[in-house]
Amino acid sequence: MSNRPATPLLDRVHSPADLKRLSDAQLKQVADELRAETISAVSETGGHLGAGLGVVELTVALHAVFDTPRDRLIWDVSHQSYPHKILTGRRDRIRTLRMKDGLSGFTKRSESPYDPFGAAHSSTSISAAVGFKVAHDLGGTPDPALGDAIAVIGDGSMSAGMAFEAMNNAGHLGKRLFVILNDNEMSIAPPTGALSSYLSRLYAEKPLQDLKAAAKGALGLLPSPLQEGAKRAKDMLKHMAVGGTMFEELGFHYVGPIDGHDMEGLMSVLRTLHSRATGPTLIHVLTKKGKGYRPAEMAADKGHATAKFDVISGKQHKAPSNAPSYTKVFAQSLIKLGEADDKIVAVTAAMPDGTGLNLFAERFPNRTFDVGIAEQHGVTFCAALAAGGLKPFCAMYSTFLQRGYDQVVHDVALQNLPVRFAIDRAGLVGADGATHAGSFDTAFLANLPNMVVMAAADEAELVHMVATAAAHDDGPIAFRFPRGEGVGLEMPERGTPLEIGKGRMIQEGQRVAILSFGTRLAEVMKAAEALEAKGITPTVADARFAKPLDRDLILKLAADHEALITIEEGAVGGFGSHVAHLLSEEGVFDTGLKFRSMVLPDVFIDQASPDQMYEAAGLTAKDIETKVLTVLGVAQIGAKRA
Prior knowledge:
The chain is of the alpha/beta class.
């Protein structure tokens, strides 16, 4: 406890209602203490730091003015919600963030009534706010009762099409709701595109202090001013800020930009709008990601995501790496291929660092494209790049590619265009939990005509699969790989394209065959070693491809063994289901083959360490060993048989 900050005023805040009894000066002190508490907590847990530090004052002000949880406060993405959690009765658990059985790193409906809408993917908050407002007006009766709806959305998230779809609908409906545009000039990566430039121009014309002074005049903030003087004040503020015209054309009253770290100004604006607004209102708030903690402010990503760290120095406590990460292996392989082929280009959606494309961009800046938080656009952009004679690699997390699925189907697969999908974060990812788990991509891609689907068993296989994708011009192709380090194999200097639809034998055995798809192969080999000590030597094969399947390999395994077990890091409906369908159609089950499929369970697994998550999923070496013994009917084989 000695290294924790002194927070005498924050210690008196057990719920947002306690904030309403404090003066503005005391609220400023609460914000300072809340920032210190957030830094202290994240130093012990790791997690998203910079985003939360940027909205500390805004968080305090919103909870002080609005009546949460009756008023639905919706945080877009919600990686900035740690200060919100501290203020809403969860401070005693804040040091369990992102841990097994602890607080989620994102908002979560089942965790607190103060989290009215779960998040972790971007650009959903305005849609949710519109839904809550319509539910309120049509007599919805949730607990607690419905009040106002407030969406807090970042400038990066605002670039996604879904945000504008919601804005357009909200403006059409004309109902009272609030959108806080949290403009920190930076989402995860530096924001890209015309919207970012537009927002920059909004406050580049005049000093912020002039706008701040104008903002404190309540007459200038009336959403529907009746007096001529108020109208002139509003026009002055609007013109000083270069408009807000785009938002007003969508049907929103625009207010701002205002300084998101000035508690007095924030409270003045929010109180006025809370009492006077009648329709959809957008409040443009300028904040600084990482505000108040110099190591975060100085970091390239403003402390977006950190490991545990020392508060004084900011130095992160990262475990030493034993092997290169899969992400880095992908990036380095793509760079080598790009050096030999100038048609190779790379596309990501606001995750250049997360996907490794920052490294490709350093080498080939003109052949790397960050389209912003716009996966739908990114996929169709890649489709046209392919139609235009280039070789696009579309690098996205599995869970983010879900957002562009219609485009994968309609614009890529249907047209049989050779887009290369590099699917990072496949399988269970640990502390980010279910929202970021890559559970479904094998299932939703392998059922598409023309699609080739691969999974790397290790980092060396990944090198070959990147080369395979680069060489494949006959249609779309995808390869998946997990978060984290490889297994420590000797790496090939260059990748060799694999024969499409052909797996590989790992070891020959008897009675039971284990067919692995993806990086569970390492656990399969541990299980095989334990089984050999019990007198059972399983055959082990690496499928490599979920589509097209290696028919010859699978049918031979079925013919030569009494049992066949598939294993994958994906949901039911994926690789194992395709194998079962093949065996069924070939009549193999008619002759008595014992078949089992080990997949992720049909639940969303909460955050924990990756090892704990795979234990919960039943996909560890011990689980594989038990499955083999059970299917062979020798679960109680005992040491004497060994």
